[in-house]
Amino acid sequence: MQQSAVPELAHTRTRPIHWVATATAIAGVVALSSVVQPGSATAAQAAAGTRSQSAPVSAAPPGTTGVHFPLDCGPVKALVVKKATGDLDGDGRPEAVAVVHCDAPMGTPPDGVYVLTRPADGGTPRLVATLVNPKDRSNVTDFAIRARTVTATLLGYSSDDVPSCCPDVKTPAKWRWNGKAFVRTTPAGAHSV
Q1: What is the pLDDT of residue 171?
Q2: DSSP result, 60-85
Q3: If DSSP codes are grouped into helix, strand and coil, which group holds residue 170?
């Protein structure tokens, strides 16, 4: 073993007191940072005698927790597998669109696609539309909200004889709010997989 040219320094070994001191210092910094906050930034100062208003805070998008989805899952629960948010109706409050299926232990359960909204008072989210009914035996891929439009690719079956494992029809779909309901458009060219 080669001896070090520098004698061993006492402060290079960590002892419990070092950890206590470090933890105390970090706790002090965290506590101080939660009390001391910077002022709000402004691009320009308001002229004397004028009042400034801050922009309205947009509402939070609705969550899926506690929402009852109209699925008959038997002993298993409904599972939200995808979710996207956006202002679909142009009212300034975001809606949520959820892809939901039964949490089946085997197989490929069909998906349902549901639109949720939250009341203006911020109350409990509620289901307002079903875009894809699980009874249609579809699975949803490429799911998104863009420009107030819900888009998805639906994988389905050409007949009841096709096994659930192997969808053989692929259909792109879009839904858009027309002021009264969500209208589905399916671009030409739905094709077999």
Answers
A1: 93
A2: PPP--TT---S---TTSPEEEEEEEE
A3: strand
